[in-house]
């Protein structure tokens, strides 16, 4: 198979192909074609049938070809991770699983499972998202207005955002905060000059509401929709 950066796509053993992906990019689970979200005559999204193990094998081939330094997954639940980890002939384990993770959605069980398997959790929406109602479940309250995060921030002369980010990195979760604002981008880096006490970490852990901001409900009927399982 042609595994060059120029071909931009990697063929899968099931006859499909995937684009070469980089950090921060993703492909929707859809049928190849012109429409962004192709639908059938009943208005249901037509999915691109994917075999996650075949996809993983193609990603392993990318790594072996030197096209990727490390390979990981995103939004995988425990069952899906186990499917890869138990795949006959597995060559490379996922190094990371990128999932929603922050004080209101702390992912204790998935985090523990990933720890046991040396998989790093990369937390998206670590500040509680932009609360864009087109894709965010805004029934969960704004994270950065949380009184506990703000009170702890006061003690350290830090913002609630910095406390939320510090909490995540202190429990071994990689964070990828987003901001369009240069001052806030700088602020989000200034989290390595203080640390939270064990008691504060426990207080923040107790904020977990176990409610996702990012539910991806438009894909809930996809056979691999990951969020029906407990974790
Ligand atoms: P902005 O781009 O105006 O800074 P997440 O990383 O959880 O997806 O959150 C992104 C949202 O958080 C964006 O709306 C962003 O707005 C806002 N944000 C990013 N950094 C901070 C910060 N330090 N304080 C407050 N809001 C922030």
Automatic annotation (TrEMBL):
* Gene3D superfamilies assigned to the protein according to its UniProt record, in alphabetical order: NADP-dependent oxidoreductase domain
Entries under SUPFAM superfamilies matching the protein: NAD(P)-linked oxidoreductase
Q: May I ask which residue range the UniProt record assigns to the signal sequence?
A: none
Q: Which GO terms fall under molecular function for this chain's record?
A: oxidoreductase activity
Q: Which InterPro entries match?
A: AKR, Aldo/ket_reductase_CS, NAD(P)_OxRdtase_dom_sf, NADP_OxRdtase_dom
Q: Pinpoint the NADP-dependent oxidoreductase domain residues.
A: 47-208
Q: Which domain of life is it from?
A: Eukaryota
Q: Which Pfam families match?
A: Aldo_ket_red
Q: What family is this?
A: Belongs to the aldo/keto reductase family.
- Which protein, by its recorded name, is this? Aldo-keto reductase family 1 member D1
Tell me the organism. Gallus gallus (Chicken)
């Amino acid at each position: 198979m042609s595994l060059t950066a120029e071909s931009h796509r990697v063929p899968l053993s099931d006859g499909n192909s995937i684009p070469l992906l980089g950090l921060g990019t993703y492909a929707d689970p859809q049928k190849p074609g012109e429409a962004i979200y192709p639908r059938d005559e009943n208005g249901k999204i037509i999915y691109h049938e994917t075999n996650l193990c075949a996809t993983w094998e193609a990603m392993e081939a990318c790594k072996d070809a030197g096209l990727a330094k490390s390979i990981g997954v995103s939004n995988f639940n425990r069952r899906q991770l186990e499917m890869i980890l138990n795949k006959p002939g597995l060559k490379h384990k996922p190094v990371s699983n990128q999932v929603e993770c922050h004080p209101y959605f702390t992912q204790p069980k998935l985090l523990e499972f990933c720890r046991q398997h040396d998989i790093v959790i990369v937390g998206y929406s670590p500040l509680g998202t932009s609360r864009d109602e087109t894709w965010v479940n805004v029934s969960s309250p704004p994270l950065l207005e949380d009184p506990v995060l703000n009170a702890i921030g006061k003690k350290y002369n830090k913002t609630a955002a910095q406390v939320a980010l510090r909490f995540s990195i202190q429990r071994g979760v990689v964070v990828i905060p987003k901001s369009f604002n240069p001052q806030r981008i700088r602020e989000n880096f200034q989290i390595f000059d203080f640390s939270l006490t064990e008691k504060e970490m426990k207080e923040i852990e107790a904020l977990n509401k176990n409610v996702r901001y990012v539910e991806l409900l438009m894909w809930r009927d996809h056979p691999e929709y990951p969020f029906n399982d407990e974790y």
